[in-house]
Write a structure and sequence with these properties.
alpha+beta; 29% helix; 9 helices; single chain; 10 strands; 5-stranded mixed beta barrel; globular; 2 domains
Length: 285
């Protein structure tokens, strides 16, 4: 069941076209809120919800989310936090918004960065999940740069990736002309572990075998005040069912076109990589 919480403080406006806001909520956690009247409209919130659910289905490190109720009084008490569009400042709307939970805990002990240079790819734990994110993005049709944040606790020596910002995931669904504009991560080193289709497991099999009822549950259950029509959920379901049969083809096209540089495709597994050994034994190379 999707959680519902209340916003208690609007902290800081974030970068990006949806002009989201870092917010502290009643459960003590920090969320990045995308508001109903963001410049991309309600489509951005629908994309966020469905993609977050798909990410959870695949078992990827995507943020938890909640529907966050923002009061009129809280917005009125934060007059400097506004939407700026076309040189005009607009108030954020009160009501239920989409909230993506952040790894911040208020203690300052968790380090979160949004850029990782190629030279430090070896400092990123769980690199194979980038293949899982590629499955997700090929399935939904992401038409934007793959956003990632890297999280490290004070005690850890490595960063763990979290795949965030899914407002453009369903771009080909909402705007068919955007199909084929996928600019994946420019960090080719982050895909060096890919040796073949086995590198995309278990995420590829989970996506390809997802059934009608399983996916139907992911495209419904939006807040009533969003007024998402039932036919939109039905159309999204049809879209996902069709595209799950095309994931391999789309990844192959990305590889052939150079959008995603899988420069070690077909090469043997390096046995010195512990995670490669685990994957090889599980999926047969």
């Amino acid at each position: 069941m999707d959680s519902c919480v209340f916003a208690t403080k609007l902290i800081k406006k974030q970068r990006g076209t949806t002009q989201s806001v870092l917010t502290r909520c009643s459960d003590g956690a920090y969320y990045v809120l995308k508001f109903k009247n963001n410049p991309q409209g309600l489509n951005a919130l629908v994309s966020e919800v469905v993609t977050a659910r798909l990410g959870q289905l695949l078992g990827l490190p995507v943020p938890g989310y909640a529907f966050v109720d923002v009061s009129t009084a809280l917005i009125a008490g934060s007059p400097s936090i506004v939407i700026v569009q076309g040189g005009v400042s607009l108030r954020y709307e009160a009501g239920v918004q989409f909230g993506s939970r952040t790894p911040l805990d208020g203690s300052g002990k968790t380090q979160v960065i949004d850029y990782m240079p190629a030279s430090l790819a070896h400092c990123v734990d769980n690199l194979p999940t980038f293949a899982g994110a590629l499955v997700l993005d090929s399935w939904t049709g992401l038409a934007d740069y793959r956003p990632v944040v890297y999280v490290k606790s004070k005690e850890s020596t490595v960063f763990s990736p979290i795949f965030i910002d899914h407002d453009r995931s369903f771009a080909p669904f909402f705007a068919p002309q955007s199909e084929g504009t996928f600019p994946a991560s420019h960090l080719s080193e982050f895909y060096d572990f890919v040796r073949g289709w086995g590198s995309f497991e278990p995420w590829l099999t989970i996506a390809e075998t997802a059934g009608y009822q399983e996916l139907e549950a992911l495209v419904k259950g939006f807040p009533l005040e969003w007024e998402v029509p039932d036919r939109l959920g039905a159309q999204l379901l049809e879209y996902l069912l069709k595209r799950k049969t095309e994931i391999r083809t789309r990844i192959g096209r990305l590889h052939a076109s150079g959008f995603v540089r899988l420069r070690n495709w077909g090469k043997p597994w390096p046995p010195v990589w512990s995670w490669a050994v685990r994957m090889e034994s599980q999926f047969g190379g």
